[in-house]
Specification:
Elements: H1 3-10, H2 22-36, H3 42-45, E1 52-53, E2 109-111, E3 117-121, E4 132-136, E5 139-144, E6 155-160, E7 171-177, E8 180-187, E9 194-202, E10 205-212, H4 217-226, E11 228-233, E12 238-240, E13 242-244, E14 249-252, E15 256-259, E16 263-269, E17 278-280, E18 283-290, E19 293-300, E20 305-312, H5 319-327, E21 329-331
Antiparallel strand pairs: 1-21, 2-13, 3-11, 4-5, 5-6, 6-10, 7-8, 8-9, 9-10, 12-21, 14-15, 15-16, 16-20, 17-18, 18-19, 19-20
Helix pairs in contact: 1-4
Region (Disordered): 71-105
Keywords: Membrane, Transmembrane, Transmembrane helix
Transmembrane segments: 41-62
Amino acid sequence: MDELDRLLAQTLHGAAERAPSDSGLLSGVHGRARRYRRRRIATTLAAGAAVLAIGVPAAVVLGTRPDASAPPPLEAVPTQSASVASPSPAASAPASTSAPASSPPALSLVPGYTAPTFPYTLPATDGMKAPVASMDSGNLVAFFEAIDIRHHSDTTVTVSSRKPAFTGAATEAPQTVRGHGGTLRTVDVKPAKQLILYWPESTTRWIALATDDTYTPQQVVALANALAPASIPVAPPFTLDLSPSGLATDTVSESTIGFGAGFRVVLYKRRALTAANQTVGSYKAQLTRDAHGVTLDVDVTDWSATLRVSAAAGRTISDADLLRFAAGVHILNRSNPADW
């Protein structure tokens, strides 16, 4: 028996007489499982990855998209410190009454890109898959998918620099978690109640563990107490030859890498260009500047996708650097184009 199974088993003693029959239990968890078998990052991030450059120097031959039915092995992704990244504030100019406020500094590009890492894991068990990590608006997220749905449930752990905020009706009860005062939030929905346990791990870090009532409240607390330090790479949808200097990653999903201050690269489902005026490698592209900022849309025809690189208003980047950045984006097999 492994450590996680032991922790969960300890909470089940004394409840056997109240347990439903095997058929009733199996029906219930299958209902829960159907609710959770939604489209997840795991379906694409678990796939193998092959690099396909969307724009490369003339001396490099552009490959064709691999057969999705037989993806090659996963490419290694570099990692960085496990701490939650946050954008570095730009230096402010001294106050002046005789001159207008200075504009933010122009974006500059530096070689390479390092993906963030998720800093915890649960003890390995045959009933759960290995975690899949992502990042959303500065929050690091790890998804643990249940494969033994009679004894386990899908579980998501979120690490943030701020206290979680919730909406909607729920009941809350205090819990002691990892030596800290936490809160167990129960949302009464069908087919399974949602259980969210959250607590301050330190003065600068909050953790939330979300699952359903396949687990008892005591088991949810046991799961949280079982979290151990780790360094799980957040697998990005692209590799990048260049990255914006001084801007920390705040979003990584199956379609997006986002940086602070509104600099993003997103793979969308293909949309025809209306006025192509640039090229990136062998692909047509459209560069647009307006009041919202600057966008570069690249028509990646052999992926039936549009790659968009954008910088929000208030950030300055030259056309040449925008094209140079796009030429260094390499789409991986695990990517999945987003809807517009």
